[in-house]
Amino acid sequence: MGQIDYGQVQRTASDLYVRALKLIPPDVTAAIERALEHETKSGARDILQTILKNVRVALDRNLMVCQDTGIPIYKVKIGSNVSVDGTKLEAAIRAGCADACVTHPFRSSICDPLTRQNRPDSTGDHIPVVDFSFAADLDGIEIRMMPKGSGSENMTWMKMLLPADGVKGVKKFVLDCVLRAGGQGCTPSLIGIGVGGTAELAVKLAKEALFRPIGRPHPDERIAALERELLDAINRSGIGPMGLGGDTTSLGVHIETADTHITMNPVAVNSQCWRSERASAHMYADGRIEFGY
Ligand code: SF4
């Protein structure tokens, strides 16, 4: 049984925050480049080219891609071949998050929800958001990180539809939300959708959908077909990059589902902005570590 090095977890949590803010995943850059190839409106092409230049400049100068440090979210998956003290693991992630903010330094975007008093280090009550899950076949632990920008997180909706509304009702709700948002949330967006479960599980699934690389369809062909249909409909809206018109409103639609109650039909939409920031690390039980997206 491997032992977790909590100091390494803390350093990794810090590194992930920095990486997510500076390194745009290759699938995101590729999706923007594909969109540019197909975009027919000149204003929209200018914006997509500017976005790609932004990504290059951030990489060349070791800068953040956007000023928003977001709400830090960590998703931790624990394998069965490591011995873990959950309280130490969570404390190490929280400390790593604060380290990144203070030593980099980053702007802390976190505040008290009532007084609006700013917190100094990107942590606060229940922040960072840390989710734990378990996988029998995982060697060690996997940590995924997303600093969710407010512009896109503000574009979040949830509704308890009726079972009689069916898939048609889900489609209508998603399209109504995207049309209402327009260019808010820095389009072209990635649209995460959660269908089923309970109210909070649907929202959680919508967020989980944003961690999937753009261009990787859902493995269930029925759901993958729905993703394609919604993406096509959204891109025919004409909203375009930054809401200024064009063929590219979204880079992808990702759906995750859970079974639900026979009298419920929950659906949630969580938009992600064009930068689709995320980073991951696999910490093997033998101490090796691999970073990814
Ligand atoms: S929505 Fe995204 S790209 Fe827009 S300001 Fe926020 S983090 Fe930056």
List keywords for this structure.
293 residues; 5-stranded mixed sheet; 4-stranded mixed sheet; binds iron/sulfur cluster
What do you see in this structure?
- This protein has 293 residues and is an alpha/beta fold.
- The protein has two domains: 122 residues; 122 residues, no CATH class.
- 39% of the residues lie in helices and 24% in strands.
- It has eight helices and eleven strands.
- Strand 10 and strand 11 form a beta hairpin.
- The longest helix has 20 residues.
- It is globular.
- The site of iron/sulfur cluster (SF4) has 10 residues, from helix 5.
Overall mean pLDDT stands at 97
What is the N-to-C order of secondary-structure elements (H for helix, E for strand)? EHHHEEHEEHEHEHHEEEE
Number of domains: 2
Spans where pLDDT lies below 50 across 5 or more residues: none
Give the beta-strand count.
11
Helical content stands at 25-40%
**Termini separation (Å)?**
27 Å
Main sheet: which strands, in order across? 4-2-5-10-11
Shape: globular
- Describe the sheet with the most strands: 5 strands, mixed
Q: Tell me the Rg in angstroms.
A: 19 Å
Q: What fraction strand?
A: 15-25%
Q: Please tally the helical runs, counting DSSP H or I stretches of 4 or more residues.
A: 8
Bound molecules: iron/sulfur cluster
Structural class: alpha/beta
State the assembly state of the protein chains.
single chain
Outline of this structure?
With 293 residues, the protein is of the alpha/beta class.
Describe the secondary structure blueprint for this structure.
Layout: E1 2-3, H1 6-22, H2 26-38, H3 42-61, E2 71-79, E3 82-83, H4 86-103, E4 129-135, E5 141-148, H5 150-153, E6 156-161, H6 166-181, E7 189-197, H7 199-209, H8 221-235, E8 250-260, E9 265-272, E10 279-283, E11 289-292
Parallel strand pairs: 1-3, 2-4, 7-8
Antiparallel strand pairs: 2-5, 5-10, 6-9, 7-9, 10-11
Helix pairs in contact: 1-4, 2-3
The protein binds iron/sulfur cluster.
